[in-house]
Amino acid sequence: MGELRVAARTSETGTGLVPAVHVRGLVKRYAEVEAVRGIDLDVAPGETFGFLGPNGAGKSTTIKILCTLVAATSGTAQVAGWDVATDRGAVRRHIGLVFQEPTLDTYLTGEQNLRFHGELYGVDRSGAAARREEVLRMFDLWERRGDEVHTYSGGMRRRLEIARGLLHSPKVLFLDEPTIGLDPQSRASIWEYLRELHRSEQITVFVTTHYMDEAENCDRIAIINEGQIVALDTPERLKAAVGKDRVQITTDDDRAAIGALRERFDLDAAVREGMITFAVSDGASFVPRLFAGLGVSIRSVTVHRPSLDDVFLAHTGTTIRDAESAGGVLHPLAVLARGR
Amino acid sequence: MTTASTAAVRVPAISVRHEARAAFVVWQRELIRFTKDRARMVSTLVQPLLFLFVLGAGLSSIVRSGTGSVDFKTFLFPGVLATSVLFTASFSGISMVWDREFGFLREMLVAPVSTTAILTGKCLGGATVATLQSLVLLAVAGLVGVPYSPPMMLALIGLMFLMAFMITALGLVLAARIKQVQSAMPMVQLIIMPMMFLSGALFPLSGLPTWLAVLTHLNPMTYAVEPLRSVVFDQLQVDPIARAAFDPGIVWNHWQVPIGVQIILVVAVSIGFLAAAVARFARTE
């Protein structure tokens, strides 16, 4: 099997140095709406890259351009070293695609769906069965492989789609809102599988989501709003850039504690949600100093890191939820474009 | 090395072999879907049998008094084969609307293969399913006075396959237009029923009023039905007058169109429908 991979490598335009995704000046204009307004982007091989933004921000349009399903109005994009405009076939052979909407034949079994996919992608027959077993086991579907897909739960179907997207050993796996429509438990489990995938296969994962908490799972994220990238970095650094952590403490004597915080640490504290609440730039390293210097006995401490919600708010001046409801009103055509 | 344990697979560049594999697996899926759908299998058989034994028996008493030597059921037999093919194959083509509705069309169209390969597989699948279905009807040939001649049976099977390919391709052309599942069946009624009635499947093409003659001659289905009837009548002991009444063939402005030309015409129309379907699916999806 190792030999096969080596053989595949030689036909490439130099893995490792070539970014998995390389985008410059990407623009997509639909009749009157500019869905994508000049995006630059580089994703390194092996990276799990999150594309975060409200519905209608241009996420799906961008992913469709990268997957050769929609032509860009201007700008260039390369995926795994191939140009999406001129090497469509090569791009498609080297990417895995999982759409928002289901694309399974529910009257075929799980394994039949995979077999169909393998043939359609021209997967080498000698290794096909082993690869099918591998991806089915990876997503815990091996036992159910002989059952028709309409008997699967929503979470299982999603897993089967992801397993199918990996079947032909793509360089880049595109996941467009992979957890949409799933219950919180299934959502969490999908991300567990994706983290496992990140460990076991050398693959770049490009995932769009409008769930802030899910984006935390990515190595790096780009925040997109109204067709433009407004921030791009690791979740940690993005949050650090926004600033302060929120610290909440309970004490034996709240009034004395608030006074001590003002005098000794120069902090404005107030009681919120029944706890003394204040903001510091690095909560984790502040806590030991707090214990050493407050002079009032502390019963509990909670440190809240800034969330990506705060990041989104800081960069766009609006929360992702407000942006979504506004997007629906301001950009009816963006909604239309998404439906394509 | 972790990579050594993964069953990495290679995806080759687009080749004829790859395209053929893609078409083959689409064909295979049609067969799997068909064998799982017992209800469809039975329901698409009932209609032709009703035509043959109920309509055939009901009308044969009137028709026989006029011409004598051919049982109307015998006349109807190739026509009923054709209607069976028409309904089964058109449904196969139209089923692309469901594939779109449930997203599977997308899985097919984003693959690194041509739309032509996928739709060719679909047409071959529809043709195979319709032909298999018609084998049941071929089995009752003896009941309506058609002899079980192996060469005739083979010829009928070949001709039905070709007709079914054409009709599936037509179904695909329609499916490219129909975006909603609920509009699919009305569309079948609108297009397929007239094709059946205007094809000479259920009545002879001799002595038709001009408007009807013109419409039947414009219907590609007519050129797929007539070879079937001709093959069947070649096996019967029928006097020339009766044959001229029941199986007059197709005449273009005094030219008796040979069966070979009719078959070529059906092949050409099939390719035309397929090309139209490919163009539409490649553009709209």
Kindly describe this structure.
The complex is a heterodimer of chains A (340) and B (285). Chain A has 340 residues and is an alpha/beta fold. Chain A has helices at residues 2-10, 59-66, 88-93, 110-120, 125-138, 154-166, 184-200, 212-215, 235-242, 254-265, 283-293, 308-316, 320-330, 332-338, and strands at 21-30, 33-43, 48-52, 74-79, 82-83, 95-98, 172-176, 204-209, 220-225, 228-233, 245-251, 270-272, 275-280, 298-304. In chain A, the strands form three sheets. Chain A has a six-stranded mixed β-sheet with strand order 6-7-8-3-9-10, with helices on both faces. In chain A, strands 2-1-4-5 form a four-stranded antiparallel β-sheet. In chain A, strands 12-13-11-14 form a four-stranded antiparallel β-sheet, covered by helices on one side. In chain A, helix 4 packs across helix 5, helix 6 (154-166) runs parallel beside helix 7 (184-200) and helix 9 (235-242) crosses helix 12 (308-316). The two termini of chain A are 39 Å apart. Chain B has 285 residues and is mainly alpha-helical. Chain B is 74% helix and 1% strand. The radius of gyration of chain B is 21 Å and the shape is globular. Chain A binds chain B through residues 1-2, 4-5, 7-8, 67, 69, 89-90, 92-94, 97, 99, 101-108, 112, 115-124, 127-128, 130-131, 133-134, 167-169, 200-202, and chain B through 1-15, 17-18, 21-22, 24-26, 29, 32-33, 36, 99, 102-104, 106-108, 110-113.
